[in-house]
UniProtKB/TrEMBL annotation:
<dbReference type="InterPro" id="IPR012046">
    <property type="entry name" value="LytTR_ABC"/>
</dbReference>
<protein>
    <recommendedName>
        <fullName>HTH LytTR-type domain-containing protein</fullName>
    </recommendedName>
</protein>
<feature type="domain" description="HTH LytTR-type">
    <location>
        <begin position="196"/>
        <end position="302"/>
    </location>
</feature>
<dbReference type="InterPro" id="IPR007492">
    <property type="entry name" value="LytTR_DNA-bd_dom"/>
</dbReference>
<dbReference type="GO" id="GO:0000156">
    <property type="term" value="F:phosphorelay response regulator activity"/>
</dbReference>
<dbReference type="InterPro" id="IPR046947">
    <property type="entry name" value="LytR-like"/>
</dbReference>
<dbReference type="GO" id="GO:0003677">
    <property type="term" value="F:DNA binding"/>
</dbReference>
<dbReference type="Pfam" id="PF04397">
    <property type="entry name" value="LytTR"/>
</dbReference>
<dbReference type="InterPro" id="IPR027417">
    <property type="entry name" value="P-loop_NTPase"/>
</dbReference>
């Protein structure tokens, strides 16, 4: 099956691979720029079909005519009437696609991937603006593709969408790829703090400390920041600081705790104004208190 070198996506040395696995689905959350890189790396592959909700079709063809065209083009033997029924398209089968809603176009993209004769399917943000019905239908499409022997890889920038698709997801960041733990995963011994518990919609997730870029307090809530995403934690900032005091985290400001491993540089804007630049694609800047300037530099030198 097709494999993608992680080093070619994150533009850093890394020995890992992202692989398509036959008769299974792999779900990976990653920043938008990495999604674009994966698309570029698979663009000319003859074994990978790219499923995109915003895919363009022939606006003058009806829904049924499109399905007949897909069947003929790919040599598929799927029963069109059955597909129309399964995906709730019977009322729209005579409607030209140019007049169909985004919801219907998204369903056509799911079906297109099913009918494709390529063994690998790369689904790019497949639940973007998806209705509840379409979320159910995407799950149905995945199960059918697995039964057909296809290897499905879902890449999305949204952790919430990733968890809607699967309980077991991977996360790709500039350190590589790793599994995201959920509350169904047995806890590690309490004597060692490797993760913080956070909330993502109605899910409890366990975030690896090394993935955290910084923690901030805003409007009465405390957020963990990871690759452009924020997750709420229950502890206040002082409690969180105490939990992390033996790890590479530092209270750099009254409202911020920074992961020292994620510090790219410190900028001195004026005599008493400083910022910490985070080592991420956006080079996020967070405030550094004047009284903390010398101490954090010493800590960074000692690391």
């Amino acid at each position: 099956m097709h494999e993608i070198k992680v080093s070619e996506v994150i533009d850093r040395e890394n020995e890992q691979y992202i692989g398509f696995e036959e008769e299974s689905v792999t779900v990976i959350q990653m920043p938008i720029e990495y999604i674009q890189k994966v698309i570029e790396l698979t663009n000319h592959s003859t074994s990978v079909f790219r499923l995109e909700s915003s895919a363009r079709y022939y606006n003058r063809l009806t829904v049924r005519e499109h399905l007949k065209f897909f069947n003929k083009w790919y040599g598929s033997q799927m029963d069109i009437d059955n597909i129309l029924k399964q995906f709730g398209l019977e009322p729209f089968q005579k409607m030209k696609l140019g007049k169909c809603s985004d919801e219907i176009t998204q369903r056509m993209a799911y079906i297109h991937a099913m009918m494709s004769n390529r063994k690998c399917v790369l689904a790019v943000n497949p639940l973007y603006n998806a209705t509840v019905d379409n979320i159910h239908l995407f799950h149905r499409a995945i199960e059918q593709m697995k039964r057909m022997g296809k290897a499905v890889m879902v890449i999305t920038h949204s952790t919430e969408d990733a968890f809607v698709i699967s309980q077991d997801i991977l996360k790709l960041n500039n350190q590589g790829i790793k599994t995201v733990k959920t509350e169904e995963t047995p806890d590690e011994p309490q004597s060692v703090l490797n993760r913080l518990k956070a909330r993502s919609e109605d899910k409890t997730i366990f975030v690896d400390l090394e993935d955290i870029e910084y923690i901030e307090s805003s409007e009465g809530k405390v957020y963990i920041n990871i690759s452009r995403e924020k997750f709420v934690i229950e502890s206040n900032l002082t409690e969180t600081e105490q939990k992390l005091k033996d790890y590479d985290f530092y209270r750099c400001h009254r409202s911020y705790i920074v992961n020292l491993k994620k510090v790219r540089e410190i900028i001195n804007w004026s005599k008493n104004t400083y910022s910490i630049v985070i080592d991420n694609p956006d080079k996020t800047k967070i405030p550094l208190s004047r009284t903390k300037y010398n101490e954090i530099q010493e800590l960074l030198v000692l690391r």
